[in-house]
């Protein structure tokens, strides 16, 4: 954002509640420009301040931040933000405006009160640009219909999705046949014989091709060698394509502590992660498999019948389905079949909503987080920052299948993770491209 040359060039950004719940420190990220918080936003945040979800944390932290910034001043007037390069902020009381969004849209609601604040500022601050910032697409559209400039909150957004999509796997052609033969015979070769002067990315996977042959491989940055990647069974689950082979290699590699697996439905993300966890069950105290709760049709889970366990079961069923699929690879009399039942009964394998696990110690844990695209960047950071000794974390999801209204492919936590930690020696990422669930599922993904 270019710096304003004059006071009139300094913009006024009006923040919606969705921005605060996404990032409590968002008020500090508008350079030298001024920030307005409609009083309606504070009223909405008051309803979010109790609870253990990330949105509750963000609401509480923002309220504390405002209290610190106010320094006993009356914050309905312009109040300086911290730092010489920052602008000012103020709380905007419910205004009287010649244009009333409640009347225009035929309904009185908080979103329209926020629009009224932006309309009033536009009328009273005629020499300055007023911009509504919201992660709510519908609110932005309503603002634009009232001739109010509206933008998404861009801080932390991934600018180039193609870069993170291509992170992790590369195809190199024209490799000398003798190099590929050496990989088959000796399992590894020095990286310089294949990568030459190319940039070397930690834990990157390669499909190496000569005129007549090919081999799957992986760059071991610690030893500076390219190693052959073989198809391995994990609790009787066998990878069906190159990308699944790479994903399972990362899951089973003890050097790699953090893995992300991106792919559409039916590509085997969760199945591979769970199979890999079961294969390594002796190396960890517990296996946690969790996913965030995203209410169906924007309804709170309270509308579902039964106790809390009954309410949450529908959200956890896909995870149980994967476990049952693995278990059914064996006969009921097989020890592998019985071992899964034993792990569940002894709570050494736990399937729960993410909210139930958040805050727990994550030492000696194999932790799988499903549907990670529905997490915010802050939630991703919170989970990883709780990792103790001998913990491995696998995030799975599809960055283009967002189920929450205030995230998108560029701002969700999974995209953020892939972008920020790519090339780190503790991290590996792979994108699964081919659906393996069934021909019918592939038809849906490709044509519908």
UniProtKB/TrEMBL annotation:
Keyword Nucleotide-binding recorded: yes
Gene Ontology CC, one term: cytosol
GO molecular function terms attached to this record: ATP binding
Gene3D superfamilies: 5'-nuclease, P-loop containing nucleotide triphosphate hydrolases
Every PIN domain range: 11-141
Coiled coil: none
Keywords per UniProt: ATP-binding, Nucleotide-binding
UniProt record similarity statement: Belongs to the PhoH family.
Name of the protein: Phosphate starvation protein PhoH
């Amino acid at each position: 954002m270019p710096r304003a040359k004059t006071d009139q060039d300094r913009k006024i950004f009006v923040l919606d509640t969705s921005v605060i719940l996404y990032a409590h420190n968002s008020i500090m990220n508008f350079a030298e420009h001024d920030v307005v918080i409609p009083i309606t936003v504070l009223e909405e945040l008051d309803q979010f301040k109790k609870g253990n979800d990330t949105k509750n944390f963000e609401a509480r932290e923002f309220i504390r931040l405002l209290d610190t910034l106010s320094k006993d001043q009356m914050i309905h007037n312009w109040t300086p933000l911290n730092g010489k390069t920052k602008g000012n902020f103020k709380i905007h009381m419910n205004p009287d405006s010649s244009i009333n969004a409640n009347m225009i849209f035929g309904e009185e609601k908080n979103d329209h009160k926020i629009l009224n604040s932006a309309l009033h500022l536009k009328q009273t601050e005629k020499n300055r640009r007023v911009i509504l910032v919201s992660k709510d697409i519908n609110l932005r559209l309503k603002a634009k219909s009232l001739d109010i400039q509206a933008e998404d909150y861009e801080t932390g957004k991934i600018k180039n999705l193609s870069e993170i999509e291509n992170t992790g796997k590369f195809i190199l052609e024209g490799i000398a046949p003798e190099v590929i033969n050496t990989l088959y015979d000796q399992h590894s070769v020095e990286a310089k014989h294949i990568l030459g002067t190319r940039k070397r990315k930690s834990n990157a996977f390669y499909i190496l091709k000569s005129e007549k042959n090919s081999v799957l491989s992986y760059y071991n940055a610690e030893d500076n060698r390219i190693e052959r990647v073989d198809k391995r069974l994990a609790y009787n689950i066998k990878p069906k394509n190159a990308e699944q082979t790479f994903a399972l290699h990362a899951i089973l590699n003890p050097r790699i502590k953090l893995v992300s697996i991106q792919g559409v439905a039916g590509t085997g993300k969760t199945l591979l992660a769970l199979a890999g966890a079961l294969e390594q069950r002796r190396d960890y105290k517990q296996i946690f498999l969790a996913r965030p709760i995203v209410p169906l049709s924007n309804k709170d889970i309270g509308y579902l019948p039964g106790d809390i366990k009954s309410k949450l079961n529908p959200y956890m069923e896909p995870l149980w389905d994967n476990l049952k699929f693995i278990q059914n690879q064996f006969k009921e009399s097989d020890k592998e079949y019985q071992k899964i039942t034993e792990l569940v009964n002894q709570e050494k394998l736990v399937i729960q909503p993410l909210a139930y696990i958040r805050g727990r110690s994550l030492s000696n844990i194999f932790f799988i987080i499903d549907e990670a695209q529905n997490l915010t960047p802050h939630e991703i950071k919170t989970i990883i920052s709780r990792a103790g000794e001998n913990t491995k974390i696998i995030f799975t999801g599809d960055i283009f299948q967002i189920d929450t209204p205030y995230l998108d492919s560029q701002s969700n936590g999974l995209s953020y993770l892939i972008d920020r930690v790519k090339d780190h020696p503790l991290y590996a990422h792979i994108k699964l491209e081919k659906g393996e669930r069934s021909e019918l599922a592939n038809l849906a993904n490709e044509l519908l």
